[in-house]
Amino acid sequence: MPYKITISNAVLWSTCSIALLPVAPNAVNSICMMLWVALILIYTFLPSNRKDRPQPRRRSLGMFLLFGGNFIFLALSLLYSSERQQGLAFLVQELPMLLFPFCFFLLDLPDDGKDSLLEKVLLTFWIATLLMTGWVFFNYWRLDLLSEFSKASSFNTILRDTAEKVTDKHPEYLSLYLVFALFIAVRQLIRTSRTMKLIYGLSIVLFLFLLLLLATRGPILSLLVAAVTVSFLRIRNKALKIIVPISLTAALLLLIRFTPAIYSRVLETKNTAFVPPVGLQFNSTNIRAGIYQCSFELIRQHPILGVGAGSDRPMLMACYAQFPTEAYQKSYYNTHNQYVNFWLLTGAFSLLLFLGSLVYAIGCNVRTKNYVMIFFCIVMCLSFLSENVLSRQAGVVFYYFFICLMVRHARIAAGSRRADG
């Protein structure tokens, strides 16, 4: 009997298409999101599709406001922003911040079995990241760049620049994809057959190697902390609870020590005073000192409501002008901290809401022992400390898609346990 394509199947596979983010250009990813939203609306409201539908999932306005409320704050900030045109453009870019909470918490999604949707999405993301990794390595080989591994440093960034050029994604986002896909591969390595173990094991080696080549400090540090934390929570044997985290920490620290691109950045941080740069003596460390100084100066002036979406750029640029260096004139530097960015743009209440959503996400997944989500939250929480991850489509889609999907999954799992109990 031929496979019957239903609206339910279309919604499931369109959800998986969003997980192709590592290999999908931004335009393609936007089309996938629009198609996904349209299919969910049809699934939710078209009467002819209701007869084959499983029991509707619990909708929650509270969850929508908790995870989508920051977009509402951004929209309201246009009322007092001095740069409304730029703010509106930023709002369009941040639309996934509203779409994913809206669809996951206010509309109906099908699921064709326990954990099925989540598992399909995770597998799709792993495959997409593996394809992305293969494409980057192919270009390294084609351009004869693998020999640059021993020469790479904070000043020789040809490997990072090439990866960004061939994927059209910043190395920070590529590294976050690699870290999450690496955890998915480790998880599957434990659970699958011998043949698939070989494939997942090979992917782990490739992901880790590319992560070291890209040499992004934040994702690598977050990988270490998240891996140690999840290992401690997951392992029941008391001796292994100590041995495995210590072994993971030692192994990753050794990799960092003997990877020139990363260790040079560690030395840079160690040897650079954390004060704004002067003259030509600037690097990624002391540039951040000036960024944070200006960010908090503006926050002190606008602590409650923030400066408004779009106003941050001219205000920060004006503040950077006080420093006797050309470092801030060559390119624009945002706040380089997601928490600070929410506070600067939309004020203290917006920051508290964002922190509340993170606490809730971690809490509900600790209760359901969803270690994928715990790992994801730790990685993102730490990455937010050093980058505005949500300032680009590659970041805002990645974060809000997965956190809303997994919170929805955790709430359904918790509801099922209460019903069974």
Provide mean pLDDT, rounded: 88
Question: Roughly how many Å apart are the termini?
Answer: 39 Å
Largest sheet: none
Q: Give the overall shape, derived from the CA principal axes.
A: globular
Question: Low-confidence runs (pLDDT<50, min 5 residues)?
Answer: none
Compressed to H and E, one letter per element, the order equals HHHHHHHHHHHHHHHHHHH
Beta-strand fraction estimate: under 5%
Number of domains: 3
Radius of gyration: 22 Å
The total count of strands amounts to 0
- The level of helicity is over 70%
Number of helices: 19
Give the class from helix and strand content and strand pairing: mainly alpha
Task: Based on the model shown, name its key terms.
19 helices, globular, 3 domains, mainly alpha, 421 residues, single chain, 71% helix
How is this structure best described in words?
The structure is a single chain. This protein has helices spanning 7-18, 26-45, 61-77, 84-93, 96-106, 116-142, 158-167, 171-191, 194-214, 217-234, 238-257, 260-271, 284-301, 312-320, 327-330, 338-346, 348-367, 371-383, 393-420. It has 421 residues and is mainly α. The chain folds into 3 domains: 1-53; 60-110 and 297-421, no CATH class; 123-271, no CATH class. Helix 8 (171-191) packs antiparallel against helix 9 (194-214) and helix 16 (338-346) packs across helix 17. The longest helix has 28 residues, at 393-420. The chain is globular. The model has no long low-confidence stretch (mean pLDDT 88).
